[in-house]
Structure formats: structure tokens, C-alpha cells
């Protein structure tokens, strides 16, 4: 067993103040025994520490280490206790920070086994972090000051927080339960499914890639400040708000539930079906390429700032709006439902037929060509209603 000495006095719960000479002769075993057995115990070590047995810091006790720390067996910090390490820390077995306790690492943290973060408990890492499985309970927080690697599943319960100040890699599933805050100040890569069940506030400042399904629950607020690749499905539930400042690629289905808003501030490629449900909004500040079927449902509002290519069947409405600032290419059948207005400010090419009822309008401000072109109305036609004229004038 590694043997280390304490560099300062130790205050034991009974109020006994040990002389410095006594503390110098106390080994790590004795210190950890006091930290487990005595409320308000406090120890400080000024050199590297390795502990090869199970350890519990309990009942408002404190351990400070000015150096590195290695725990070879299970390690618990419980009941409003504090554990602080100025250097690197390695935990080879389970780590549990529970009961409103605080845990601080001044440099890198490496966990080789499971991490449990209890209610109202906090872990702060100044450097990088490497983690195995994580279970974070309500109102807990994990802050990492540099890069982070998560090799197993991580889950965060209600109102818990994950904050990473640099790049992050997630090798396994990521789950946020409700009312969570998730922030990455760097790039992020997710190798497995990522989900936020409801009320997730999520922000990533750099390029991001999701290799598997992404599922956002109701009232999600999602913001990525650079390019994003969704290799698989993206599902967004009611009343959610998604903003992506760079280019976006969605490799599989996009499904957006009612009353949600999506803002793509760069070129956007949709690799499979797109379904936008009632009273939702989608803005694309660039070109948009739809490789499969598109359905913009009841009372949806879609604006595409560049060109739009629709490779398969499209369905718009009822009572919806679609505005395309550039050219539009509709390669397959178009179904427009009553109360819907479509405006293409550039040219429009139709590769197939269009079902356009009397109670819907399709305006083309440039040249219209193809089988359905005769069903469109020129933006300068005399019978264009005043409201549409105003809209076109404002757009132009």
C-alpha cells in the first residue's frame, strides 16, 4: 500500500487539533478512516497520493490534495463533503459524488469505471476529462474545462447540467431527461443515439456530427453555431426551436412536430423524407436539396432563401405558405391543398403534374416550364391579389 503523510494540521470532528508532528506521522489509511467516521473531518496533503482501498469521505468532511491522486478501488464523497485535487486524478473503480457534495480537479480527470453524481452535487474539472458510464441525478452538474471523452452511456436526470469548454466525443448513447442544460464550447461528435426528452437547452459552438438518430422532445432549444451533419434521423417534438448557423446535412428522415421552428442559416441537404407538421416554421438561408418526399402540413410556413430542388413527391398545406427566393425544381408530382400560397421568385421547372385547387395559389416570378407550368400565375399578372403583390414587392 502506498504511504503518504499529511502536510498540515488535521481538524477532527470532536474538536481535537492535532499537532503538526502528529499529522506528519499519520498515513493515508488513518486520514481516510477519520474522513469516513468523523463529521466535519478535514485533511490536507501537499504531495501526490495513491490509495489502494475503498474510500468514503462522509458527513461534511473535506480532503484537499496539492498534487495528483489515484484511487484504485471504489471512492465515495457523500453528505455535503468536499474533495479537491490540484493536479491530475485517476479513479480505477466506481466514483460516487452524492448528497450535495462538491468534487474539484485542477487538471485532468480519468475515470475507468462508472460515475454517479447525486442530487445537488457538483463535479468541476479544470482540465480534460475521460469518462466511462455516467448517471447524473436531479439538479447535479458536471463542468469540464477542456476536452472531454465519454466512452460509455451517459444520462442526466431532471434539471442537471453538462458543460464542456472544448471539444467533446461521445462514443455511446447520450440521454437528457428534462429541463437540462448542455453546452459544448468546441466541436462535438456523437457515435450513438442522442436524445433530450423535454425542455432541453443545448448549445454547441463548433462543427458537430451525429452518426445515429437524434430525438428532441417538447420545448427543446437547440443551437449549433457551425456546420452540422445528422447521418440518420432527426425527430423534433412540439414547441421546439432549432437554429443551425452553418451548413446542414440530414442523411435520413426529418420529422418536426407541431408549433416548432427550424432555422438553417446555410445550405441544407435533406437525404430522405421531410415532414413538417401543423403550425411549424422552417427557414433555410441558402439552397435546399430535398432528396425524397416532402410534406409541409397544415398552417406551416417555409422560406428558402436560395434555390430549392425537390426530387420526389411534394405536399403543401392546407393553409400554408412556401416562399422560394431562388429557382425551384419540382421533379415529381405536386399536391397543393386549399388555403396554401406558394411563391417562387426565380424560375420554376416542373417535371410532373400538379394538383392545384381553386382555393390555392402558385406564383412564379421568373420563367415557368414543364407539365404544370400552365397552372402557375405570373407575379405580374393583372389578377394577382393585392396582398400577394405586396408580399412579392417586399421580397424583391
Structure, explained:
Helices cover 6% and strands 43% of the residues. It is built from three helices and 51 strands. It has 396 residues and is mainly beta. The longest helix is centred in the first third of the chain and has 10 residues, at 28-37. It starts with 19 loop residues before the first helix and ends with a helix. It has a domain at 40-200. The protein is elongated and about 90 Å long. The strands form three sheets. The protein has an 18-stranded parallel sheet, with no helix packed on it. Mean pLDDT is 91; it is low at 1-25.
Key structural traits:
mainly beta, 396 residues, 18-stranded parallel beta sheet, signal, 43% strand, 3 helices, elongated, 17-stranded parallel beta sheet, 51 strands, Organic solvent tolerance-like N-terminal domain-containing protein
Amino acid at each position: 500500500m502506498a504511504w503518504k503523510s499529511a502536510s498540515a494540521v488535521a481538524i477532527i470532528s470532536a474538536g481535537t487539533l492535532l499537532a503538526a508532528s502528529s499529522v506528519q506521522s499519520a498515513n493515508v489509511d488513518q486520514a481516510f478512516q477519520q474522513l469516513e467516521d468523523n463529521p466535519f473531518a478535514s485533511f490536507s496533503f501537499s504531495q501526490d497520493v495513491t490509495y489502494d482501498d475503498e474510500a468514503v469521505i462522509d458527513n461534511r468532511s473535506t480532503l484537499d490534495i496539492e498534487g495528483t491522486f489515484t484511487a484504485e478501488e471504489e471512492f465515495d464523497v457523500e453528505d455535503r463533503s468536499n474533495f479537491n485535487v490540484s493536479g491530475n486524478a485517476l479513479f480505477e473503480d466506481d466514483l460516487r459524488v452524492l448528497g450535495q457534495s462538491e468534487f474539484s480537479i485542477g487538471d485532468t480527470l480519468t475515470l475507468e469505471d462508472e460515475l454517479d453524481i447525486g442530487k445537488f452535487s457538483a463535479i468541476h474539472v479544470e482540465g480534460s476529462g475521460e469518462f466511462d458510464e455516467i448517471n447524473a441525478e436531479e439538479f447535479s452538474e458536471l463542468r469540464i474545462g477542456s476536452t472531454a471523452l465519454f466512452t460509455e452511456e451517459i444520462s442526466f436526470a431532471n434539471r442537471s447540467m453538462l458543460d464542456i469548454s472544448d471539444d467533446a466525443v461521445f462514443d455511446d448513447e447520450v440521454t437528457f431527461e428534462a429541463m437540462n442544460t448542455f453546452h459544448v464550447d468546441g466541436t462535438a461528435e456523437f457515435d450513438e443515439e442522442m436524445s433530450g426528452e423535454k425542455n432541453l437547452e443545448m448549445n454547441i459552438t463548433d462543427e458537430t456530427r451525429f452518426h445515429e438518430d437524434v430525438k428532441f422532445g417538447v420545448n427543446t432549444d437547440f443551437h449549433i453555431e457551425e456546420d452540422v451533419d445528422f447521418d440518420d434521423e432527426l425527430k423534433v417534438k412540439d414547441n421546439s426551436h432549432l437554429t443551425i448557423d452553418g451548413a446542414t446535412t440530414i442523411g435520413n428522415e426529418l420529422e418536426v412536430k407541431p408549433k416548432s421552428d427550424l432555422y438553417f442559416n446555410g445550405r441544407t441537404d435533406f437525404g430522405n423524407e421531410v415532414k413538417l407538421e401543423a403550425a411549424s416554421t422552417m427557414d433555410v438561408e441558402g439552397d435546399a436539396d430535398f432528396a425524397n418526399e416532402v410534406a409541409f402540413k397544415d398552417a406551416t410556413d417555409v422560406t428558402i432563401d436560395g434555390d430549392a430542388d425537390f426530387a420526389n413527391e411534394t405536399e403543401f398545406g392546407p393553409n400554408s405558405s412556401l416562399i422560394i427566393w431562388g429557382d425551384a425544381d419540382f421533379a415529381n408530382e405536386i399536391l397543393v391543398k386549399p388555403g396554401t400560397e406558394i411563391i417562387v421568385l426565380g424560375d420554376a421547372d416542373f417535371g410532373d403534374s400538379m394538383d392545384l385547387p381553386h382555393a390555392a395559389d402558385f406564383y412564379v416570378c421568373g420563367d415557368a416550364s414543364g407539365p404544370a407550368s400552365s397552372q402557375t400565375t405570373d407575379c405580374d399578372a393583372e389578377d394577382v391579389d393585392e396582398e400577394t403583390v405586396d408580399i412579392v414587392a417586399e421580397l424583391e
